[in-house]
Specification:
- The protein is an alpha/beta fold.
- Helices cover 38% and strands 23% of the residues.
- Helix 15 links the parallel strand 19 and strand 20.
- Helix 1 packs across helix 8 and helix 10 crosses helix 11.
- The longest helix is centred in the first third of the chain and has 19 residues.
Length: 502
């Protein structure tokens, strides 16, 4: 359904809203009602030339801005965002569908990266070695790249961009953000707060768009680095295309996160964790637990405990304080996820909880799908192989720890994994041997704090560096090594020998 009048979501360029030249638009829905809440402008390549040009023009002055002044802008933004975090969370909920409490958590985790970036005077310190040779010293510098771009997904419209732009800007770069066109308004609110905090015009820009905008960013000669979070096929495309154009790239792809539960685990803790990590944000998290691996005799009790908790989940509008899980982001995505439930049942998995028939009072047109739980899933099934990105939790049963380890090793994704156990030896072995970028021990979603870096392995990451934290600083800067000599005039004269450290 479409109301008679909907608002327009514009780009943000040069410190103000900008309509651009493209006439193309996309609908932005309220997932709880199915109504069109806004129309977002979709940029064409000519619009990208204007946006990137604006960021390029702002770069020289921002690069020369003292580190302390850059940090003060971020501190000021942090204060503004903290005061208005409830407003931002409600905007996220209205366009994504997640409950407001979950959106507040997203905002909080994003601001932790801002906290980290406020320490930029310490983070970009170089090194110095005196007397590496006669009268010769060496020191290193970390310098910004120029215009950097971020291409971010719908599931975290605040947090994922904040994995990128605070560090990039703190390091002295300018930034172009291309958020998801499904929930674009949060990015404009953030841009307004950055301007209020004193960030110079053109340092942070927001451009909305689809593949045309992405391709223009990947090929633009003035964009030096690309950060991406999304599905594995698109991550691979972004990585290959941007690299062909000589850009630095970090492209985070899909996931199929496993939670292994050993027979000695705390059953209640494990069941709580599986439900929280599997159905939070309707499963639309790249770090959601989508597969529980039940080892040995714990399977029956674990599945029953998860079932009880799953059936008790309250599904409703994101702005209802009673809701624990909201709708999915669009009707198309809801139908895609429901199709996987159909496929899982058809492939022989045991559908323990079926959320397909869920009805939410007064919200017949909302994009709701109840939580679904499968048992006795096998690796050949599509619900195991594919990243579903919805409230579908699968239980795979294995006989031993070694069987579980082989299952994880054979999976092409390696974003995050978790182990639930009381056995410290098993935990130590798991964290050392498991083939994944992020590991949780009795922690279902091992998203690291901002002063560590986030990223997976295998087909969950294309590129060499993870986002935010120390690796983020390295990604958004490049090293320069300076060798200097201030020799006594008496020692001058030609020397055709190869330089050494003597």
């Amino acid at each position: 359904m479409r109301p008679n009048a909907v608002r327009d979501v514009h780009h943000w360029v040069g410190g103000k809203e900008w309509e651009g030249t493209s006439e193309r638009r996309a609908d932005v829905f309220d997932p709880s009602t199915g109504a069109v809440a806004a129309r977002v402008r979709l940029a064409d390549p000519s619009d990208l030339d204007v946006v990137v040009g604006t960021a390029s023009d702002a770069y020289p002055e921002w690069r020369e801005t003292p580190l302390g002044r850059r940090a003060r802008v971020l501190f000021a933004f942090r204060e503004i965002a903290e005061r208005h975090k409830d407003d931002l969370a409600r905007v996220v909920s209205s366009e994504h569908g997640k409950v407001v409490a979950d959106a507040l958590g997203e905002v909080a985790r994003g601001l932790e990266v801002v906290d980290f970036a406020c320490g930029i005077p310490h983070l970009v310190k170089g090194e110095h070695s005196e007397g590496v040779s006669t009268d010769t010293d060496v020191h290193s510098l970390r310098q910004p790249l120029g215009v950097c771009a971020g291409i971010t997904p719908f599931n975290f419209p605040v947090m994922v961009p904040m994995w990128m732009w605070p560090v990039a800007i703190a390091c002295g770069n300018t930034f172009v953000l291309k958020p998801s066109e499904r929930d674009p308004s949060a990015s404009i609110m953030v841009a307004e707060w950055l301007a209020e905090a004193g960030l110079p015009d053109g340092v942070f820009n927001v451009v909305h768009g689809d593949k045309a905008a992405v391709d223009a960013l990947l090929a633009h000669r003035d964009v030096r680095a690309i950060s991406f979070v999304g599905s594995t096929p698109i991550a691979r495309y972004v990585y290959e295309t941007a690299a062909q154009h000589g850009k630095r790239v970090q492209a985070l792809g899909g996931a199929k996160n496993h939670m292994v539960v050993l027979p000695d685990a705390d059953l209640e803790l494990a069941a709580d964790a599986a439900v929280s990590a599997g159905y939070g944000s309707a499963g639309e998290r790249c770090m959601a637990i989508s597969v529980v691996v039940a080892v040995g005799e714990i399977g029956d009790e674990l599945v029953d405990a998860i079932r009880q908790r799953t059936e008790a989940i309250v599904v409703g509008p994101g702005d209802d304080a009673a809701s624990e899980m909201g709708p999915l982001v669009t009707g198309v995505h809801r139908d895609r996820v429901a199709g996987y439930v159909d496929a899982g049942a058809g492939e022989g998995a045991e559908l323990v909880v079926d959320g397909r028939g869920l009805a939410v009072d007064g919200r017949a047109d909302g994009f709701f799908l109840g939580p679904c739980l499968f048992d006795r899933v096998t690796p050949e099934m599509s619900i195991y192989r594919d990243e579903i990105f919805g409230p579908v939790l699968s239980v795979v049963r294995v006989d031993s720890y070694d069987d579980a380890a082989r299952l994880l090793s054979d999976n092409p994704y390696a974003n995050g994994v978790a182990l639930f156990t009381r056995d410290g030896g098993a935990a130590r072995r798991f964290e050392r041997e498991v083939d994944a970028g992020m590991v949780g021990i009795n922690v279902p979603i091992p998203v690291p704090m901002a002063y560590y870096s986030f990223g997976g392995w295998k087909q969950s990451l294309f590129g060499d560096t993870h986002v935010h934290g120390p690796e983020g600083v390295r990604f958004y800067t490049r090293a320069k090594v300076v060798t200097s000599r201030w020799a006594d005039p008496a020692t001058r004269g030609p020397d055709l020998g190869f330089p050494t450290s003597s």
